[in-house]
Design a protein that fits this description.
The chain is mostly helical. The protein is about 60% helix and about 0% strand. The protein has helices at about 10-25, 30-35, 40-45, 50-65, 75-90, 100, 110-125, 130-150, 160-165, 180-200. The longest helix has 21 residues, at about 180-200. It is flat.
Length: about 200
């Protein structure tokens, strides 16, 4: 058995993501990461240059779960739907890192490869380059909005808060109990409306 723990880029990313999932973005520090790996902080820098670089690598691993294969058959509607669903699912597993991802693709290879596929498929379908950029951005707005918060969980289970003052929200206290289902269905509604609405403006 080696006296010192064996480090690898993969192990560092895994433990870093565990910390983010548990303690949030602000809870990750190179010192804490090193402690959980059982090494000195200086040992990390042979594998990652900075905390920011590490976050990009962690984010890249998450984004590998985003499926853009739906664009392969030339159907941009199917491609956007699959991409949106898989993107939301990937972020739902790690909501604490969403604010970091929301800043944009930066130099992340996983982000740029997927954006390249999306942009190329939309342009090939007849959308202008500007429109393709706007569509990709709009899809990200939709996905990140869904991943950052739960609308349904934001209500109190105390019926008295709504019953008398807000008669149209007399059932709002029931929303937290069905939040997961309702948030999913709400996202599906928005995604369908987004893709269907684009179809009415699609190039002929």
């Amino acid at each position: 058995m080696p006296r010192n723990p064996i480090l690898s880029a993969s192990r560092i990313r895994t433990v870093a993501l565990d910390i983010i999932d548990r303690d949030g973005l602000d809870g990750l520090s190179m010192r804490k990461l090193a402690a959980e790996l059982g090494v000195q902080a200086a040992s990390l820098y042979g594998h990652v240059s900075t905390k920011d670089d590490l976050l990009h690598e962690v984010a890249g691993g998450i984004l590998e779960e985003v499926d853009v294969s739906g664009f392969a058959d030339g159907d941009w509607r199917h491609g956007l739907t699959m991409c949106g669903r898989s993107y939301r699912a990937a972020l739902a597993e790690h909501p604490n890192i969403v604010p970091f991802l929301a800043y944009g693709p930066a130099h992340r290879e996983a982000s740029l490869r997927r954006l390249d596929v999306v942009h190329g498929a939309l342009v090939a379908a007849g959308w202008s380059r500007r429109e393709a950029t706007m569509i990709a951005a709009a899809l990200m707005y939709l996905v990140f909005g869904a991943a950052l918060s739960s609308f349904s969980s934001g209500f109190s289970e105390d019926q008295s808060l709504y019953r008398d003052r807000y008669p149209n929200l007399d059932k709002a206290h029931l929303l937290p109990s069905v939040a997961r289902e309702l948030d999913h269905d709400s996202f599906e509604l928005a995604l369908d409306a987004f893709v269907t609405g684009l179809a009415t403006r699609a190039p002929r």
